[in-house]
Write a structure and sequence with these properties.
Layout lengths: L3 E7 L6 E7 L5 E7 L6 E8 L7 E7 L3
Antiparallel strand pairs: 1-2, 3-4, 4-5
């Protein structure tokens, strides 16, 4: 994976797939809020990078209240 790639996440409210640009030089664990491009509701995006294998990146979306 490149140091700056688009990753896909699914909105927890409407189910639409979205993309987010991620700068992997910002750290192995990132946690931020991103609005869905369709319903505009906030989703909590959690990104975890496997420190042993940069190709293994987990992207998880949650309802922003969690």
């Amino acid at each position: 994976m490149q140091t700056d790639d688009d990753l896909v996440w699914r909105c927890q409210y409407c189910g639409v797939e979205n993309t987010v640009w991620v700068d992997l030089t910002a750290g192995d664990n990132q946690d931020f809020i991103e609005d869905c491009r369709i319903c505009c509701r906030p989703n909590r995006i959690i990104i975890k990078v496997d420190t042993l294998d940069d190709e293994n990146v987990l992207v998880e979306s949650r309802i922003s209240d969690e």
